[in-house]
Amino acid sequence: MERFKSKLSSIFPNISGSVSAKCPSNIALIKYWGKREVQIPMNPSLSFTLNESNTQTELRFSPQTSGEFQVKVYLDNELKEDFAPKIITFFKRIEEFIPFLRNYEFEIRTHNTFPHSSGIASSASGMGALALCLTQLENQLGAEMTENEGLVKSSFLARLGSGSACRSIYPGITVWGETSAVEGSSDLYAVPYPYEIHESFRNFRDQILLIDEGQKEVSSTVGHQLMEGHPYAKKRFESAEENLNRLTPILKEGNLDEFGTIVEHEALSLHAMMMTSTPYYILMKPNTLQVIEKIWEFRKETSLPLFFTLDAGANVHLLYPQKNEKEIETHIEKELKSYCKQGKTIKDFTF
Ligand code: DP6
Fold it and tell me: Residue 1: is its pLDDT beyond 90?
């Protein structure tokens, strides 16, 4: 942890200014579900960082002497009073690594390129963008981190804001959580996936079917807590690690069917955990299941590589290679869009 302590002295210049950063969201293929203090995952996770779905954040700062954290958050120029407590919790967690948080008052101005409650994690892109702003500001105040040091620290800080956010700092495939399957992996920050990736995964599509647009029924914070004392938790954590191990040769060789088997198993395992926790939840909606059945039918009939994953909600992330985009998009238009709220989908892709 010592390496993340700031090199800055405790006297900060009497200046105002602003920094800004952009950070995408990500979709986990191997899911993080279950954590211990402070923001340490119970199993390693792996995700595709997205391209289109991102958060742009400007962090304005000016000197203050109240000794308290002073922060205002604006989403699309609208003051969001209810966002401040989450940021204050974050600031408390990172204060030991970012020493100037009480010396300035902050205005966080943020914009997402995707709709709120769309099944895309705005906490991942939002915390990622804020962490990038903070390391930039640390450098502006004289920390002299190299680009690489800045990214590692941003990932480390983002994790303390929201676990999955630490994976969004890098493009492509990233891994968070210490595992023998990935050299250099850590519980404290994410790393870019260091091994060979088959070209089938380049530009891999993630099209999100908006089955349900409402507020999440269960927040991921509560979801993670439900894994404490869960009767199947231990097995689930082992299974995630096994799945990650199995994925490594698949990512290299480009075996799409095996890829789909692991990714869908992960998604359904996450939901199985929610269905068997105390209290228990069903986060899928009838249309989620209909879509899953349709995907399986389509695969059986056409042998085309269309797969799904789910987050802790009802929306379905359709995953498919760019190569098969045409036939698969036609199928989505004709057969799957009707299951979405107002036919809405969001198109994104990996690297
Ligand atoms: C289902 O990263 O949102 O999306 O650390 O409490 O902020 P906190 O949780 P969060 O959990 C993400 C859960 C998930 C799976 C994943 O992205 O790995």
Answer: no
**What does the pLDDT average to over 231-254?**
98
From the CA of 330, how far away is ligand 1's center (Å)? 32
CA 225 to chain centroid: 18
Secondary-structure class of domain 2-192 per CATH: alpha beta
Torsion of the alpha carbons at 285, 227, 116 and 51, rounded to the nearest 10 = -100
pLDDT at position 258, please?
A: 98
CATH architecture of residue range(s) 202-349: 2-Layer Sandwich (3.30)
Q: What is the rounded CA–CA span in Å between residue 74 and residue 307?
A: 37
Residue nearest to atom 8 of ligand 1 (CA): 162
Is the per-residue pLDDT at 216 higher than 80? Answer: no
Q: Is the CB of 224 under 6 A from ligand 1?
A: yes
Determine if ligand 1 sits within 6 Å of the CB of residue 128: no
CA gap 244, 241 in Å, rounded: 5
pLDDT digits (tens, 9 = 90+) for 95-141: 999 999 999 999 999 999 998 767 788 899 999 999 999 999 999 99
Closest ligand 1 atom to Cα of 311: 1
Evaluate if pTM is beyond 0.85: yes
The reply to whether 2-192 and 202-349 are identical in fold is no
How many angstroms separate the alpha carbon of residue 100 from the centre of ligand 1?
A: 28
Question: Quick one: pLDDT at residue 120?
Answer: 80
Evaluate: CB of 46 within 6 angstroms of ligand 1.
Answer: no
Q: What is the pLDDT of residues 163-205, one digit of tens each?
A: 999 999 999 999 999 999 999 999 999 999 999 999 999 999 9
Among 39, 42, 208, 220, say which to mutate for ligand 1: greatest number of ligand atoms within 8 Å of CB. Answer: 220
Q: Is the CB of 163 under 6 A from ligand 1?
A: yes
Q: Where are the domains of the chain?
A: 2-192, 202-349
φ, ψ of residue 262 in degrees (nearest 5): -70, -45
Residue 38 in 3-state DSSP? coil
* 292 C-beta neighbours (distance < 10 Å), count: 17
266 lines ligand 1 (CB under 6 A): no
Using a 6 Å cutoff on CB, does residue 311 contact ligand 1?
yes
